[in-house]
Amino acid sequence: MTPQIIMDGLVTGSMIGLGAIGVTLTYSILRFANFAHGEFISWGAYFALAVVALLGGFSGALVAPIGPFSFGWALPIGAVAAVLLAGALALVVDALLFGRLRANRSTVIIMVMASFGAALTLRSLLEFVFTSKPAYYTKALQIALPLGGGIRATPDQLLSLAISAVLVIAVHLLLTRTAIGRSMRAVSENPALAGVVGVEVRKVIRTVWLLGAGLAAIAGVSVGLLVQIRPQMGLDLLLPLFAAAILGGIGSVPGAMLAGLIVGLAEAVAVQSIGAQWRAAVAFAILVLVLLIRPQGLFGRAE
Fold first, then answer.
1. 269: closest CA among 256, 286, 254, 253?
2. Which of 270, 230, 280, 218 is nearest to 22 (CA)?
């Protein structure tokens, strides 16, 4: 494994980890695997793209590159807007679909199948609105900077890694040091008992949707910036997201990020050694191995 492969894997893994946090929180608190989560990544990327295009139409200075980066101030503004809009979209989906199913005490399999339907609907709507043609935030080219030891990375890649690290720390502190974080952990342990002792379960559920969709939106912006924006981007990341969430241990934010980095590194090695067509197979193999050897994941607890 060359140093450059490690860097490429870390960049990919950081994006997978951000998305996996939303998957692990949703599963630990709402008790079902949400296969529509990948679509929040796609919608987040396109929300930011729409804002960038809108701001660029008003002022060319907003899309002029900032320092060594390939983007202008329009993208950070678009990223903030994407977080808010993706969170709002998640709340709408919950109100129209998952919330009603919870009220009817639907089984887990019904929730999972409903998430499949929601994913198909959101993806089709995205293609209808934005078309399936790939898009980019910027056409500016970047030269990878030598970091020593044979490692090279662009400023955009380094920024993506830094943002991912900051967000993981922030979410971990939110869950461990705040009242809403303690409420989320209580609902994760026992929703019925948490409600009895005064925890606002509905507030916790709304927070989970907002947090998960917001992190997915940031992941989508990162993927769009470093690769490209496509309606299928969330679907392509879905299997690695679940592999990372399960490998890290359901409910563990640091575990999800660490597992995302592991999955990203494994994919980078596979692409380099046996070809890009085996990328998805690597994530699937990791998922199966974890389920067979350590179902609770790296930081999970055996039930």
1. 286
2. 218
